[in-house]
Amino acid sequence: MTILAWQRAGEPDDSPVVLVHAWAADGSRDWEATGWVRRLTDAGFAVLVPDLPGHGESADVLLPPDAEPAAWTASALAADLGTLGVGRVQAAGYAEGCLVAGHLASLAADGDPGPAGVRPGQVGSLVLIAADDHEGVPFGEEIAGALRDQTSRLWHPEAAEAVAAARSDPRHHLPTLALWAGRAAWPAAPRLGSLHIPVLLGVAAEDERRSRAPRLAQLFHDARLVTVPGDPHAILTRPELQATVTRFLTDHAEGG
């Protein structure tokens, strides 16, 4: 039995892609409803979509109180991939899901023994969509406080919007989402720089954090940055981004 809840599509023997959703979302909303699952399976990929701890169908998976959420979740993903009998994968993350995808790739970096279930070189390429070099969720401490105490005052509209999104799905375990908001972090910069795999970063033209994307890209050994029209909330629906990512994954699929 896997630790997290997973959706799987495509033929099991096809090149597998793991898609990691954003904070306060779930795999279906971010990846299936936006057409990614269909597009990738039509292109010949097996698609694996987990729900993160505390989210959606994995709401009953609680983070250890002292855990860093993204790193702990990456280890859970690695263990689940072993349980599912999945070998080499490509990984893609959206927004805060990029932190988890980055940790998963770092766990499987060439030459590292990694935790149980992770083989060196298991992640062959990495896609980061609407990523931010900010640690955790923007206004994370404010959001975490509001999720723990409904009487807490929210000062920033972006924080209020995030809290409303977290509360909109009754399946979510709000204390776990609060841990995510306050603690989620990228791997250390040297770990990202040690990834000798191709990395594609997609950013929206109207994303106010767009100016920081080149700085994030520079942390990687081999990264390409693409900009698509629109805002970061709609970026997953952009057909040009889906086409670019599909070509990237096809070019770097095992045997491709």
Question: What this model shows, in words?
Answer:
By secondary structure, the chain is an alpha/beta fold. The protein has a single domain (6-136, 173-252), classed as Rossmann fold (3-Layer(aba) Sandwich). Helix content is 37%, strand content 16%. It contains 10 helices and 7 strands. It has helices at 27-32, 36-42, 69-83, 97-107, 140-148, 157-168, 174-183, 189-193, 213-217, 239-252, and strands spanning 6-9, 15-20, 45-50, 89-94, 123-129, 199-204, 223-228. Helix 3 (69-83) crosses helix 4 (97-107), helix 5 crosses helix 6 and helix 5 packs antiparallel against helix 7. Residues 110-116 have low confidence and may be disordered.
List keywords for this structure.
Rossmann fold; seven-stranded mixed β-sheet; globular; 256 residues; 16% strand
